[in-house]
Design goal:
- This protein has helices spanning 6-21, 42-50, 63-73, 115-126; strands spanning 30-33, 56-59, 77-81, 88-92, 95-99, 105-110.
- With 127 residues, it is an alpha+beta fold.
- It has a two-stranded parallel ribbon. Strands 3-4 form a two-stranded antiparallel ribbon.
- The longest helix is centred in the first third of the chain and has 16 residues, at 6-21.
- The chain is globular.
Length: 127
């Protein structure tokens, strides 16, 4: 939730994708998984994803659970100390993992991938 660019840009893009999906948007859920459980409390996450509208869910685990999930998904993240004592940012892999309704991995949307390529991927998964 403290990410200055990648996360809000990606979630904003998912808002636009949901609009383009029309009636199928009800079958498309965006799940935001924090890699910063230290700052991202359940309340902070609820408010953050809620600001993007409906169809968004936030997930948070302990740091140990986050590390384990990141390893499984081959996601990299690192805490980067800030300029003032105690401040930090989080570097992380940027992308959207797409899953079928049965939970199987289907595809990946790269952070810089054009919507003209991403939207057909989503439509194929929704079938």
């Amino acid at each position: 939730t403290q990410c200055p660019d990648v996360c809000p840009t990606t979630l904003s893009e998912m808002v636009q994708v949901r609009k383009l999906l029309g009636a199928d948007a009800d079958r498309f859920e965006t799940v935001f998984v924090t890699i910063d459980p230290e700052r991202d409390t359940p309340e902070v996450l609820k408010n953050y994803v809620g600001s993007f509208g409906t169809g968004f869910t936030a997930l948070r685990g302990s740091l140990e659970q986050t590390v384990a999930a990141a390893k499984e998904f081959k996601v990299l993240f690192a805490k980067v100390p800030g300029r003032s004592p105690g401040s930090y940012t989080m570097d992380h892999t940027a992308g959207v993992f797409l899953f079928r309704a049965d939970g199987r991995f289907a595809s990946l949307i790269d952070f810089h991938e054009d919507r003209q390529f991403a939207l057909p991927k989503i439509r194929r998964i929704l079938g």
